User: What shape does this take?
Amino acid sequence: MSKKGELDDDKRTMMNKSIVLKLQTQNAMEGFKKEIQEVETYIEDISNGRIKVENIVYPGTKITIGSNSMFVRDQIQHVTFYRSAGEIKIGSFEP
Assistant: This one.
């Protein structure tokens, strides 16, 4: 019998494995947090993109910039699509 408050060898081994697993999981989580931050930064960078249309955009075309999307309803030509205030806007063509 073990003294009160002490763990036997099996439980001590299990506790040590649990501690190691917890530390590994915490390290992995920190890595994932950094990766998420990098992806969010990348998405924000590409969200400022523009789509320049020299010819024609046909009805039904889906325009996506960052996390915003819109469908073109009418045929349009010589335009620039850009994101502003969380919406996709249409401006004049900028070569």
In short: The chain has one helix and five strands. Residues 9-46 form one domain. The two ends are 84 Å apart (CA to CA).
